[in-house]
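User: Show me sequence and structure for the first protein, then do the same for the second.

Assistant: Starting with the first protein.
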Amino acid sequence: MQTTAAPATESDLIAEYEAPPGGAWLRLLGARQNNLKEVDLRIPLGTFCCVTGVSGSGKSSLVLETLARAVSKKLHRVGEQPGPHRELIGAEHVNKVVIVDQQPLGSTPASNPATYTGLFEQVRELFARMPDSRIRGYRPARFSFNRPGGRCEDCEGLGQKKIEMHFLPDVWVECTTCRGQRFNQETLAVQYKGHSISDVLNLSIGQALELFENIPKLRAPLSTLAAIGLEYLTLGQSAPTLSGGEAQRVKLAAELSRPDSGRTLYILDEPTTGLHFDDIAKLLKVLNSLVDRGNTVVVIEHNLDVIKTADWIVDVGPEAGAAGGEIVAEGPPEELVARSLASGKRSYTAELLEPLLRQEPRAERDVFDPEAAARSRKGDVDLRKVGRDAAVPWQADGRRWHVRDRVSHTGQPVRWEGAALELVIDALAEFDELSEPNWNHRSIVEVMSREKSGGWFLHAETGDEWLLTLKFRVPKSAFDEGALNRRLGLKRLDDLDELPVYGRGERVRIRNLKGPFQEVVVTVHWQRELETDAFAAFLADAVRAYLGQARKASLNPDDLTPWKVLGQKWHLSRKGFPSNKRVGWDAELILVLAEHMARLADDLIIDWSGQSRVTFAAEGEPAPFAELHTKRREGLDLSLYVPADAFALGRISGLADDRSIGVHRDGRQTIQLRFTKFEHLHNDDWRAFLEEVRELLN
């Protein structure tokens, strides 16, 4: 920021400077929390700002208790009541507020840097893609120490047990079952490059970065943690053992790892407390990178090494308590010194900065680019493709896998008789109009018609330990559940003393599906349960009914659904909602919003043929600029697609009943608004917003 030639008075301070990098100023006027004396705080958006002053001067009252709460209240309409102030100006240029404090990440060993940053989700996904996991049917949840299944149940995945001490602090001791490894032996058997999931949690961040160097989704957050000076921490280090500074830097790393469109206000309270000089330099590198991405960083700070690098300084004082509560000087570091001398108010910050600024050399700021670590490099492997090339038994010999070698979803051997599945598949082979079975799935065998019309006929689910589940798709009303149960004569599970599974329900169930089909579900354990004339007759009847419907589907490919036939009338009707509960908004809202959307483009194409969505597109454009979701009971949802970073959340904070901002997969900004009342569509703010959208689209 450059100053203009003419000096300005204190009240006209903003006019003295060009527009800040964020395009506007955030102003809090008339703050009077605790000892504050009607002070006016000015923050140039898109900069690194330090709030300084002696302890007790009013910094926390101004920044944490008033500014942070006021902006949060403005954006979300909820939160703690801010300190008394006259007015907040400029919040419409802010998307969200993030307070990065030194509070612990969590209070139990279940919280750690890997879970807090989201890194552990990617690690679990990686282990679930290992060939051993695919064969055993392990999902990512298997590798979570917070869920039953893969964790050690004796310590509930903590690796430690708590011993409660009366009148003394609780004591944590290592679990004698898993020896601190958190997981059971079956889960630990799955390894990546010789490391089990427990080994990974025990790696330092620096070691983990070497292990996952060629996987961008893991490399990016690990590089961020290392860049912020935390390479010595272990991924699974429990949250209560982290210092306040470490916890704060983990939170910063988590913020850097998230997708960011800028316009976020970050507030930190003395982040350099207890840090070594080298760690302070790393922290500044990260804070500057947040600013370079279009965000605003406000730091309450005493450390001169941080203060001297700020873009803007606000000095609160001059003394503590009743003798403080004023802004004695503000501006860039060099001008803060000059302004303090001219104002006549004593600024201790200015007095200490003056010799530093005079003696120390200037240098370019060092920044960290978190996106650079995520960019593709030679030798990189997409996480989604890990383990894909490994040969799996159901693809090599599907019939053998499903009939003889199958493993249940829990990793246990399957106990139901494979001959039962062979009996069904061999019986269906007698029908020429059915295709060969598809065995190339871990836990499903599929049979459909040769014409591939009408969808699948049989899904045999083979992943349960004790029961084979046969699902048949037939036309609606083809079978009656009660009559079919009597016909097949399968006993309830509670009546089968030989099996350690229980259930009072019938083992033949029928339910209607969307469209013309019903689903008949039969569960069996022994081959002998299917070696009956009744089951053979049922199978023949089911095949004939299915093939008849499949032929109709091939003759009539276009399903005459009500939304395609009725169009607008369907969306205005009260049908098609997911439950029978009352709809909380008037259908006429659809017509009003559709009319408003029509004003945004001259040559408009409105598509009413969707089941629950109406789209609005300009003629000749491949993608719609707006969508109405008309079958949600909570409200009428509008999605607007505008150029990237067009609006901040603060700009739309007064619109609709609920609102949010995101990024569409094509890079455009998504504005989501929920309406339930007409008054939201008939006010000046909404009309002005629509005019801004129209200018952007045209």
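Switching to the second protein now.
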Amino acid sequence: MTTDYSKLGLKIGLEIHQQLNTKTKLFCECKPLYFKEEPELTFLRRLRPTQSELGQIDPAAFFEFQKGIMLRYEANKTSTCLVEMDEEPPHSLNKEAVEISLTAALMMNAKPVDEIHIMRKTVIDGSNTTGFQRTCVIAMDGWIKIGDKIVQIQHASLEEDAARKTGTEKNGKIISYRLDRLGIPLIEVATAPVIYSPKEAQDVALVLGRILRDTGKAMRGLGTIRQDLNISLTKGALIEIKGVQELDLISVVLEYEIKRQINLIKISEELQKKNMKTNSLTKNFIEVTDVFNKTNCKLIKKSIQKNQKVFAVKLEGFAGYLKRELMPNFRLGSELADRARYWGRVGGIFHTDEMPACDITTEEINVLKDKVKASNHDAIVFVADSPENAKDALDAVVD
């Protein structure tokens, strides 16, 4: 069955990120080389949010700070200096990188800016020791031709690449980053949202990739070019899918996201026909640990032995919907579980649409339904973890 993308109001925009093969990094004289051996130096940091010029604190940065995560940075002398460690001001902007970026921009018919100004993008995941990424616009208002169609290029920018993540420890409380990639020059090319099918998006990415390679200064190999995909549907949401590294995956990833949004829209419309409203879902989180005191479910039993609790929330009218497939091997329950893991820092969720399972019995589910006053038309989501994490996870599920 062929999807009519025009009826869906599909719009796609691309951001292409390509590492440049320069002699040095963007803001220092270190070589842009990866190292595989053990680091010569490691140090621990914890990034803290600061007020902006308007006296405001970025809520996303504050949320990350509240997680209490420590960052371990790994370095060696060949590819790292005090600039990457944020112990020394950045040096002059790499002129070779500017010239390469200008060459690529002119090949895309873009207009160079009169002056280059270094700006900051807030980075909250620890992949930059400064807490921000340095970036500068090189050219704007370009275009490329794909067949008979003109695709507008919004801007071509030059920025520093991020440090690369190498591992986690202590249940994610310590994250390790290697500083060899931090500061490697990266050109970012952003298209206007004038792409109307997954196949067309892949064709645009192919042409842009060829232009960047034609400069003769693009790095080669997996991970040296990455695509961010911005996609929206008329009745759906604007979603950014970051870091697609293989060209052939672009159309596949976009088709999956389109299916996901179409099925979420269908579920929403079905619930609206049942006169379901947003306020039908309440954040009434009920402790149900006693329901599972004698459970055979290993995951719940292990949590209770750690003096953790089990909390549940009723999703009124959602019975059967959590097992609905949004895209291949991914259900609505999977979507809710991903949100719970991120916002609640839990391992996952249980829900009644997949029961009985995990050695949880029908009898336990019946007692659970009585406890939360759920009917056969309702679904129940429950989580075993610390009270704080469990409630945050269920809060994310309801939202």
